[in-house]
Amino acid sequence: MICLLYNTLKSQSKRPKIQNPKSKIEEYRRLFPVTRTYNYLNHAATTALPQPGLDALARYWQAQSTMGMLCEPDYFPVADHAREKMARLLGADPEEIGWVQNTATAISLVANGLDWQRGDNVITIHGEFPANVYPWLGLSRLGVETRFVHRRNDRITPNDIAPAIDRHTRLLNVSFVDFGTGIRNDLVSLGQLCAERGILFNVDGIQGCGGLKLDVHEAGIHFLSAGAHKYLLGPQGVGVLYIRRDVLDTLYPFTANWYSVINRDDYLNYGQPWVDSASRVEGSTRNISGLVAFDAILAMILDVGIENIQARVLALSGRLVEGLLNKGYELISLPNTEDRSGIVCFKAKGDPMHILARALADNIIIAVRLNRVRVSPHFYNTEDEIDSLLTLL
Question: From CA 3, how far away is CA 10, in angstroms rounded?
Fold first, then answer.
């Protein structure tokens, strides 16, 4: 209980009391040490850890180093505390949330855990990030075909996907937000298509979750994967796998271990059933330090409110889009709010690496992907930071 009391007192002293997040962004901005040095506009790559996560992590390692396993009763429950927060953020039930290492691990668990039959096929989108392609291509060893649907004008609609579906199609795989264009897919309409055709719906959510509102139940998603280290503002090495309750038993837990069964302390009873939740996919040695940090960060995200975060992110990306169009840049991202995310991609006038280097020289952190400049602000960024990049351009 010493650790628990210490953590409670420290969290109460550190957490800001903010009544109106829309009018007090600066108070949240203070929780991001990166802002003291950089104009950080690269959350589609890796976030800079906010102070609540850093503080929680420091407290955990201090307790672990001075008390060893004696602090485990205070810290191990954090996996379930974070699970409840993650479920609230996604509109899921806590029992539908499993902790994994990263997005790729979660996708691989889905791809390799389903009971495929020779002749089955998976539909995915040409241009997906490799981590969301290779697990499906690997199913060729089982006689499963991966079918690629090409975008029209960089967008994907149910009308583009429907012709590729046949009686052997088992699953549709898409991203919430495309990493190379920043275009947000209409998951609700795609989920409706899957429901109508009786196929599973898998979503790579890493470029949208934490920056945009998503209700996985409303969208009809069966599986969703997301690492914590982008718009979720968390540490690397933590990821979430959402598994809708009614398909839980269709997915074999390939990471099965002593934590996967209903009574893990009954060591020699090898005939136990799996625990009745998505936690059955978790490794037996969880990334407790990462979850400690992530739990504190999820509390901050929920405190700000995902609706407020989305509004802020879209306002900043909209400001950038308007400025780029005024300067004559060719947008890859679409200007419409319903298609836009926090990621804005555009073609450089010349070598995009020159823009990257000039920005870095001004302490502006952006990225280049697919020979395009990619900018990805978050809610704590400011209009002045967007304008500074536009001035440089």
Answer: 10
**Calpha distance 183→242 (Å, rounded):** 22
How far is Cα of residue 168 from the mean position of the Cα atoms in its chain? 30
Non-local (6+) Cβ contacts of 229 within 8 A are: 46, 47, 235, 236, 237, 238
Are the beta carbons of 170 and 198 closer than 8 angstroms?
Answer: no
* Residue 178 and residue 155 in contact, taking contact as beta carbons nearer than 8 Å: no
pTM reported for the whole predicted model: 0.91
Reading the block at residue 82, the tokens are: 């974070």
Q: How far apart are the first and last CA of the chain?
A: 55
Integer Cα distance of 247 and 374 in angstroms:
36
Dihedral, 221, 225, 226, 227 alpha carbons, nearest 10: 170
Count the Cβ atoms, other than its own, within 10 Å of residue 311.
14
Q: What is the DSSP string of 72-107?
A: HHHHTTHHHHHHHHHHHHHT--GGGEEEES-HHHHH
Q: Read off the pLDDT of residues 257-275 as tens digits, 9 standing for 90 and up.
A: 888 888 888 989 999 999 9
Structure tokens that stand for 187 in this block: 């998951």
Cβ–Cβ contacts within 10 Å for residue 256, how many?
14
| 75-131 per-position pLDDT tens digit | 788 999 999 999 999 999 999 999 999 999 999 999 999 999 999 999 999 999 999
Is the four-CA dihedral 63, 65, 68, 72 of positive or negative sign?
positive
Torsion-angle region of 127 (φ positive above 0: left; ψ -120 to 50: alpha; else: beta) = left
Tell me 226's DSSP state. Answer: E
Q: Coil, helix or strand for 123?
A: strand
Rounded to 5 degrees, φ, ψ at 296 are -65, -35
C-beta separation of 146 from 126 below 8 A: no
Maximum distance among all Cα pairs of the chain, rounded to whole angstroms:
69
